[in-house]
Each structure stands twice: as C-alpha cells, then as structure tokens.
Amino acid sequence: MSIVLRALAHAVAVRRATGFAALFGLFAALSPALAIAHEFKVGAIEVEHPWSRATPPGAKTGAGYFGLTNTSSTPDRLIALSSPVAPRVEVHLMAVEGGIMTMKPVVGGLEVPAGGSVALAPGGYHLMLMGLTRPLVQGETVPLTLTFEKAGAVTVQLEVDSMGAKAPSHDAMGENAAGQTR
C-alpha cells in the first residue's frame, strides 16, 4: 500500500510541476514583450516608446523622443503638443548646416507620411519642453498630449530616463535598447 501511495503522490507532484513549468514558461515568453510594451495608438497613428531624459534642478528645458508610425494610406500631421510640466512644447529639428549644428522649431506641424514612420530621437527631430515647472526625475513618467490633424489627440507617458541616456530603457535590469546601463 505504501508503494501505491508513493507512486500516486509522485504522479501528482509531476503533474503539478509540469503545470507550474508550463505556466512559468508562458510568463517567461510573454515578459519581454510586456517589459518593452510602451506604445500608444490614436486612429492610424502609433506612438512608440515615448521617453525623456532627467533634467538637473533649475533646468528650464527638457527633451522628448518617440517613434511615430502611420498605418493609413493618407499622410497625417502632428499639429499640437501639451504637457502639465511645461507651458510650451514644440517639435524641433537638429541638423548640421555648413559644418554648424543648428536647432530650429518645425513650423506647420510634423508630417507623418502615409504608410511611413518618423523618428523623434537625439540628433534629429525631437520635442522641446520649454519653461519646465519642475525637474524631470529619472524613473517617473510625464504626461504628454499629442494632437494630430486627422487622427485626433492621444495622451502618452514619457518615461524619464537618466540624464545621459541615448535611447529609451526597456527592461528592469537597467539597460536601454543600445545595451547601455542606466
């Protein structure tokens, strides 16, 4: 009788372990997708991985970055931005002209081509949060409302990364997409 009970207990333990292993495997498979999922959508516009850099105390400007993808067959345009942490938010373009780096506001909105994408990233198009009412602190999120000519408005969350970040962070281990440690 004791052998039968031990065999039964072993069978139950194996079944439980298999069930837990399957559940753990499913969670492990999904967790990378959950860790990097920081996307927003309005109409045909997808806003991917909005982020910012921390600012030092007293700073009056900050920057914001994200990707925009338009899944529509017609172009759209980012025409307005707002955030409770800055009275003015503008799209700017950093470029090198004649060997000199320039930064200028984008006038008339930022076009997102039909079936195309636009990257707002360090060294190119980016947001300027002007007149910051407080510092941007690493680890927090900052609301930002984007208004598109056709798709409408969507509020996203800028994830604030370290002051020197060159790309958004995507995992709990403190590494960003470029593999740099925060």
Brief rundown of the structure:
It contains 1 helix and 11 strands. The protein has 182 residues and is of the alpha+beta class. The protein folds into 2 domains: 1-37; 39-161, PCu(A)C copper chaperone (Immunoglobulin-like), CATH 2.60.40.
Fold and architecture overview:
- The protein has 182 residues and is an alpha+beta fold.
- It folds into 2 domains: 1-37; 39-161, PCu(A)C copper chaperone (Immunoglobulin-like, Sandwich), CATH 2.60.40.
- It is built from 1 helix and 11 strands.
- Strands 1, 2, 3, 4, 5, 6, 7, 8, 9, 10 and 11 form an 11-stranded mixed beta sheet that branches.
- The longest helix is centred in the first third of the chain and has 35 residues, at 2-36.
- It is globular and about 45 Å long.
Highest CATH level, the class of the largest domain: Mainly Beta
Shape: globular
The name CATH uses for the topology of the largest domain is Immunoglobulin-like
Low-confidence stretches: 4-8, 10-14, 17-36, 171-182
Ends apart, CA distance between termini: 60 Å
CATH superfamily of the largest domain: PCu(A)C copper chaperone
Number of individual domains:
2
Mean pLDDT: 81
CATH architecture label name of the largest domain: Sandwich
Class derived from helix and strand content? alpha+beta
- Amount of helix: 10-25%
Radius of gyration: 23 Å
Descriptors:
42% strand, disordered C terminus, single chain, alpha+beta, Immunoglobulin-like, 182 residues, globular, eleven-stranded mixed sheet
Any chance you could write out the topology, listing elements then pairs?
Elements (H helix, E strand, L loop, with lengths): L1 H35 L2 E4 L2 E9 L7 E10 L5 E7 L5 E10 L2 E6 L4 E3 L4 E4 L4 E6 L10 E8 L3 E10 L21
